[in-house]
What we know:
Helix content is 78%, strand content 0%. It has two helices and no strands. It has helices spanning 9-44, 50-75. It starts with 8 loop residues before the first helix and ends with a helix. The mean pLDDT is 90.
Amino acid sequence: MFSISLANPLEVLLGVVFVIIAVLVFFGTFGVGVAYVFSNIKERWHEYTSKKKLQVVSNTAVFIVILSVLIALSATKLR
Length: 79
């Protein structure tokens, strides 16, 4: 495991900046994916029939519910 010296402010600053960049890149990948799906649905929305619109909305709702449950399960401590 790597460790940085807290006595050197430059090393601490570089470590903090690296972590911030890594977190932004991590969340950015999900942001790009969500934006791609949203823009794809938005562009094709007027072409969809009522049945297809209902299917898209229900599939999106199911995905959000499943993702929320997985996030909640991963955040809770299981005994």
